[in-house]
């Protein structure tokens, strides 16, 4: 009887299911939250990440230009944007698309342009409302002998200090206004950096852009440490340096980010990134939202914690029940029958399964 009881209780159902059930639930939960797990082992390592290094373009930013500011000299911002959008409607330049989209967002009525011409490497020209205008590089004004006003010079200096691209609107006698454009920051990037900081995780930005551009984006997002003008081949070295400070995750989207994604303890790719980056990553953020990095790290911690709980229960159950089944308390009249052993074995399996399911109740957002 004791032998049968020991064999029944020693059946390792709970121990065998302790980890797989948690992994299955964690993978399903991550997919539900827009995170594709490509490497489960790395997903477990994410529990104690201390540093998250972000690429800038395409990761923290959208990789597309947007209008940051419009300045007019003696005319309204709406008028500057209205004329600029009229000229840019016929242009195929990326900055032109940004100006036209901004005009639509502002609800500005874009008039027709007449006599449209493209000045290679300089800008575009045409007549709007019968008035000839030019739109292009700020240097175009000096080439035409036009002296910008003090307000325009201040706007140009401000944009230059921020590392932004600027286009100037000119008429026949003066600089009418300027439009500053910059790579747009992803909507929830700032919230992601703040949330990571609140949980004791440092955010670092690594980019190949100029110092002024990197400093502007870092300040906007609240990132205290950044590295600018980093060549693609040097990103691996930067990640390796960060790993000396603690377990490091790297978030990127481009072909140049692939080596850094492989070097990091946890590689996270943006879903809209290149196939090379996605193939090199351990996790993929399907929704292109940097805030999902925090969800992944929280889920990793909850997963590891649930694994330990299940292992503790499965091993603790056997450590207690097997000696009882073997008759350690037979001297005091307590003997564990095979039927009771089978019941306890089933209960242990149910406990492990239920605990794995409770992983779905973990709060990952907020």
Describe this entry's structure for a reader.
The chain is α/β, with parallel strands linked by helices. The protein has 15 helices and 13 strands. Strand 5 and strand 6 (131-136) form a beta hairpin. Helix 1 (2-9) runs parallel beside helix 15 and helix 5 (77-88) crosses helix 6 (94-106). The relative contact order is 0.19. The mean pLDDT is 87.
What's the rounded overall pLDDT mean? Answer: 87
Number of DSSP helical runs: 15
Structural class: alpha/beta
Biggest β-sheet: strands ordered side by side in the sheet:
1-13-12-11-2-9-10
N-to-C SSE series? HHEHEHEHHEEEHHEEHEHEHEHEHEHH
State the separation between the terminal residues, measured CA to CA: 55 Å
Q: Roughly what percent helix?
A: 40-55%
How much of the sequence lies in strands comes to 15-25%
Poorly predicted segments: none
The 3D shape can be described as elongated
Major sheet details = 7 strands, mixed
**Tally of extended strands?**
13
Radius of gyration (Å):
30 Å
């Amino acid at each position: 009887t004791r032998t049968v009881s020991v064999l029944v209780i020693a059946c390792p159902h709970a121990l065998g299911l302790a980890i797989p059930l948690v992994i299955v639930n964690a993978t399903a939960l991550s997919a539900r939250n827009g995170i594709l797990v490509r490497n489960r082992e790395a997903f477990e390592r994410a529990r104690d990440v201390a540093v998250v290094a972000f690429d800038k373009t395409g990761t923290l930013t959208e990789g597309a230009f947007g209008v940051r500011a419009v300045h007019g000299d003696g005319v309204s911002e709406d008028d500057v944007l209205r004329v600029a959008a009229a000229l840019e409607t016929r242009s195929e330049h990326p900055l032109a698309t940004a100006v036209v989209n901004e005009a639509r967002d502002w609800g500005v009525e874009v008039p027709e342009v007449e006599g449209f011409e493209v000045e290679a490497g300089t800008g575009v020209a045409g007549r709007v409302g019968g008035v000839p205008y030019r739109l292009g590089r700020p240097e175009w004004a000096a080439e035409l002998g036009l002296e910008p006003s003090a307000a325009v010079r201040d706007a140009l200096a401000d944009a230059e200090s921020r590392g932004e691209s600027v286009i100037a609107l000119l008429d026949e006698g003066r600089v009418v206004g300027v439009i500053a454009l910059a790579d747009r920051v992803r909507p929830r990037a700032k919230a992601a950096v703040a949330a990571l900081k609140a949980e004791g995780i440092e955010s670092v930005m690594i980019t190949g852009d100029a110092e002024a551009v990197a400093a502007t984006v870092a300040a906007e997002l609240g990132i205290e440490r950044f590295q600018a003008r980093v060549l693609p081949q040097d990103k691996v070295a930067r990640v390796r340096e960060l790993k000396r400070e603690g377990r490091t995750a790297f978030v990127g989207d481009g072909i140049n980010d692939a080596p850094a994604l492989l070097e990091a303890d946890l590689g996270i790719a943006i879903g809209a990134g290149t196939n090379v980056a996605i193939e090199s990553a351990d996790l993929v953020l399907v929704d292109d939202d940097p805030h999902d990095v925090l969800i992944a790290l929280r889920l990793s911690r909850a997963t590891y914690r649930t694994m330990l709980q299940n292992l503790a229960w499965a091993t603790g159950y056997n450590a207690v029940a097997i000696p009882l089944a073997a008759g350690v308390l037979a001297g005091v009249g307590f003997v564990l029958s095979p039927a009771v052993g089978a019941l306890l074995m089933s209960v242990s399996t149910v406990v492990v399964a239920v605990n794995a399911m409770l992983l779905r109740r973990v709060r990952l957002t907020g």
